[in-house]
Specification:
The complex is a heterodimer of chains A (481) and B (419). With 481 residues, chain A is of the alpha+beta class. Chain A has helices at residues 12-21, 60-79, 95-111, 121-127, 149-162, 205-210, 283-296, 344-362, 387-396, 412-420, 428-435, 448-459, and strands at 2-8, 28-31, 48-49, 83-84, 88-92, 117-120, 137-141, 145-147, 166-168, 173-179, 182-187, 190-199, 219-229, 240-243, 253-256, 262-265, 269-270, 305-316, 324-327, 334-338, 403-405, 410-411. In chain A, β21 (403-405) and β22 form a beta hairpin. Chains A and B meet through α7, β18, α9 and α12 of A and β7, β8, α3, α4 and β14 of B.
Chain lengths: 481, 419
């Protein structure tokens, strides 16, 4: 199959760029090595929309961060993705910290972050009643927020498909050849031909670039571990709470999630180049989170932890701290996105526009589609409906009356929708990310087997073919006698 | 709006027994709401025997035990809606439920019995570091796969926690041809019934490692192994004792949590120790007309006791409905655990209780020749030594009705266990 553009990697950047390119009269394919989109950094990160005071003045990172933060509400509305503009606080505990806040304020101001304010202890306490008494002030950035990162990637993918894009999952790229102005991309699903490549492979971006001989950057997987707490703890924190930043990043934060849970993390540990699959949580990492958060909100404990998890940031080796978003020196038809770590999620909408513009300049032969559909319809979320709305919906389709996941109140109808959607869920974790079935406090103890049954039924395969997250992550083995 | 005298939430052993008792006592319109497609609750997947020794004086399998009650319910005019989830209990005892036949229902009830059972403590709550591989599941989920769905959930298995379900599954998986490497228990004693340790582990030569836990899981796709370690008296892993065990499945049997989301949302007071509602001797909760029984109230080890407790709740609900006792707020005498007693159910006794009251409790630790005393001020209501008391086995003592009449109503009843 021949395409105009192949996007490699279906994370939030890949998906948003694929959607952006689907605005043009061309054939675009997104290649993903896993069984679902958003399986890398996009599914395990802080889910924060950063205001934009961290990146150094004048960098691409600073520009795309601030732009992304202001675009996020628009995109989340168009794509029907959960987003809340709750604002962020960088909390200071000492006068040194207060000086850091001044630096952040100044940097943010230069970057164009609007409406920041350095607030007093009293105001901080009023905004965050549970915060430690040792806090003495904070930097308030009202444009910050929270978003569901994997839902953004899923929604962008679905919308791109509505506009003619193709998505190939389980299609890991292992070789790329360039001849006669055409890339020949060897994937697990056969050879794909494309005139242009956009490398959005996250922690593997260096490996993909290396396939065309581009060794201009190396990606270090920087692990971050997190705790996710029960909604019972949801009232303990109202805004994104950062500590003062250090060399390794923005430190451990605590924040509400768009679904009402509390997220705390991440740690920051650099792994070896060959540990790009290591998503293990560790005793040390989890203990570090507990200790640091205890200093921020002493009452917050992990007694009501739902789960812990780890994600990998795509960190550039060496001194380069800006995003790399540019055509490769080895081939101008090959655009690299590298080092898209925080605030990559925030910047994603701006990155998509930036890459779109870059592409249009590079390939002016492609014109704009006249009938681009910018909106992805909202999935049915029964738990958000009023009793009357629920009644009407169930009258139309009885499957919305059958609750499968008790903790999150997810119905059979919603799970079937998630499986049958464009780029629908094919495994248990895919259903979980799309619907929240199994995301609650019983951790799929009740609905797990039912979700497996529904996947088997809708995909028309036996239960022992269903996996947790693709490959060999089977749930059950052979039939009993 | 549908109207019933009694709505029972949950069609497991607790709900069935409570509904039957209420019917027997003359309650007219009764509705059982069950979220699964069939009645019987967790007993449906408990195909091993050991049920009914106390209640029926015979050894039955789980489905057989449940079937006796289902058969009896079918003989009555008790209405049943299966595959139906209750999502809310509103003020005025209105129950909101949905299914794929009737749609969304608003049901007005004079009395409600909560009988939703319990769930297993999941992996996340244990904070075991490691990967997110498949093959890590609760023992009950594994039991559902093998006994209901007919699929093997694992081939080479480590079980963490020696709760009864874990022990039963060790035997079940072995009989199905899997290799159960070991059962690890964090505590220095098992949380399961002695008979299960003998019949499910000893008889099959499955090692039970006490004071031992899983400290890391390994594998990216399917589980490939776990690291276990011995723990010290503070339950902290002892460095140097780590051991890697190859396995494709980690089953968790590390405790049960009463499923009280509905109860909490209904504003009913919860006992932080049992995780169930605070109730009186009729199993009435802090909301008049709402009763609770079975594992949603306190985790039982024997279904026979669930049946007894549910009869009590059924009786209480019947009395409430028939005497229109709606405005009656009885004066309560609190019942408090002390010493080695962790909790007592019921937490309150009405000062005008008109029959003997059984106080159910569990101990904190293993006691050899422990003494159980029940006192009210200086009055000793009960005092007896027991050769063995363990946290895995629920105990009870009976307070006689004539003693209740004589109680000093200003003082609590204290249930105390001493070593």
């Amino acid at each position: 199959m021949q395409y105009d553009v192949a996007v490699i990697g279906a994370g939030v950047c890949g998906a948003m760029i694929t959607r952006e390119l689907s605005k043009l009269e061309l054939q675009v394919v997104m290649l993903e090595k896993y069984n679902d989109v958003a399986m890398g950094t996009s599914k395990a990160n802080s889910a924060i929309v950063h205001a934009g005071f961290d990146a150094e003045n004048g960098t691409l990172k600073a520009k795309l961060n601030v732009q992304g933060a202001s675009l996020m509400a628009y995109y989340c509305n168009k794509l029907n993705v959960p987003y809340k503009n709750i604002g962020s606080l960088v909390v200071a505990y000492s006068w040194e910290d207060m000086q850091t806040l001044d630096i952040l304020f100044e940097r943010g101001f230069q970057n164009g972050v609007p409406n920041m304010e350095i607030i007093s202890k009293e105001k901080l306490k009023a905004m965050e009643p549970h915060i430690s008494d040792t806090a003495i002030g904070a930097l308030w950035a009202p444009t910050a927020g929270i978003v569901s990162p994997y839902e953004l990637a899923i929604a962008a993918t679905e919308n791109a498909i509505m506009n003619g894009a193709r998505v190939m999952r389980n299609s890991g790229v292992f070789d790329i050849e360039y001849k006669n102005d055409m890339f020949f991309i060897s994937t697990a699903k056969g050879v794909i031909k494309a005139k242009y490549i956009i490398n959005c492979a996250g922690v593997f971006a260096d490996k993909i670039a290396g396939m065309i001989g581009d060794e201009s950057f190396k990606i270090i997987p920087r692990k971050g571990e997190y705790y996710l707490l029960d909604k019972i703890e949801g009232n303990m924190v109202n805004h994104v709470l950062f500590q003062c930043p250090s060399k390794m990043g923005k430190g451990i934060l605590v924040s509400p999630t768009v679904h009402g849970n509390v997220l705390m993390g991440p740690t920051a540990i650099d792994l070896d180049f060959d540990s790009k699959l290591d998503l293990d949580t560790t005793i040390d990492g989890l203990n570090t989170i507990k200790q640091e958060i205890h200093a921020v909100i002493p009452e917050l404990t992990t007694r009501n932890a739902i789960t812990s998890f780890a994600g990998l940031r795509a960190h550039l080796e060496g001194d380069e701290c800006d995003f790399i978003i540019r055509p490769s020196e080895k081939n101008e038809h090959f655009i690299n996105l590298a080092g898209i770590e925080s605030p990559g999620l925030t910047a994603a909408p701006a990155i998509a526009r930036y890459v779109g513009e870059m592409f249009c300049e590079m390939a002016p032969e492609y014109t704009k589609k006249e009938n681009f559909i910018s909106r992805r319809p909202a999935p049915v979320r029964v738990r958000e409906l009023s009793l009357e709305e629920r009644k009407k919906l169930i009258e139309k389709d009885k499957r919305y009356g059958r609750v499968v996941c008790r903790c999150e109140g997810i119905t059979e109808g919603e799970i079937v929708d998630a499986i049958t959607a464009p780029c629908g869920a094919r495994d248990v974790d895919g259903v979980k990310r799309r619907t929240r079935a199994g995301m609650g406090r019983c951790q799929a103890g009740f609905c797990g087997a039912k979700v497996v049954e529904l996947l088997a039924r809708e995909l028309d395969v036996p239960m022992n073919q269903i996996t947790k997250h693709g490959d060999n992550s089977k749930i059950v083995f052979k039939k009993t006698k | 709006m549908l109207k019933y005298d009694l709505v029972v939430i949950g069609g497991g052993p607790a709900g069935l027994a409570a509904a039957l008792k209420a019917k027997e006592l003359g309650v007219d319109k009764i509705l059982i709401l069950e979220r699964s497609t069939t009645l019987g609750g967790i007993l449906r997947q408990c195909i091993h025997t050991g049920f009914g020794l106390h209640h029926f004086g015979e050894e039955l399998s789980g489905p057989e035990y449940a079937y006796r009650f289902i058969k009896d319910v079918e003989k009555t005019d008790i209405e049943i809606k299966v595959d139906t989830m209750v999502t809310d209990i509103l003020t005025g005892n209105t129950v909101i439920a949905t299914n794929n036949v009737d749609g969304l229902m608003e049901i007005q009830a004079t009395a409600i019995i909560l009988a939703m059972g319990c769930r297993e403590r999941p992996r996340g709550a244990l904070e075991i570091p490691g990967s997110r591989a498949s093959g890590i599941m609760t023992a009950g989920t594994a039991q559902k796969y093998v006994n209901i769905e007919g699929y093997m959930p694992g081939k080479k298995i480590v079980i963490l926690g020696s709760g009864d379900i874990g022990l039963i599954m060790a035997r079940r998986m072995t009989l199905e041809g899997a290799k159960v490497e070991m059962v690890c228990e964090l505590m220095p004693y098992s949380g399961g019934l002695t008979r299960n340790i003998v019949q499910c582990l000893d008889d099959l030569n499955i090692p039970l490692k006490l004071s031992c836990t899983v400290i890391q899981t390994h594998g990216i796709e399917r589980l490939e192994g776990v690291t276990i370690a011995n723990v010290d008296e503070n339950r902290k892993p002892i460095p140097g004792t780590e051991q890697y065990i190859e396995c494709d499945t980690l089953m968790l049997s590390v405790g049960l949590i009463p499923e009280n989301e509905l109860t909490r949302n209904a504003g009913i007071m919860i006992d932080p120790i049992t995780g169930g509602a605070i109730v009186d001797e009729n199993r009435q909760t802090s909301r008049p007309g709402i009763f609770a029984c079975g594992n949603v109230l306190q985790v039982h080890d024997l279904v026979d006791y669930v049946t007894q407790e549910s009869y009590t709740a059924g009786e209480g609900a019947a009395k409430y409905i028939q005497t229109k006792a709606k405005n009656r707020r009885p004066k309560y005498i609190p019942v408090c655990p002390e010493g080695g007693a962790r909790y007592v159910v019921p937490q309150n006794i009405s000062s005008d209780a008109d029959s003997d009251v059984k106080l159910y409790f569990r101990v904190r630790d293993v006691y050899k020749n422990g003494r159980i005393t029940v006192t009210n001020g200086d009055t000793v209501l009960y005092s007896k030594k027991k050769p063995k008391l363990t946290p895995g086995e629920m105990e009870y003592v009976t307070v006689k009705v004539e003693d209740i009449k004589k109680l000093d109503k200003k003082l609590p009843i204290i249930v105390k266990v001493e070593g």
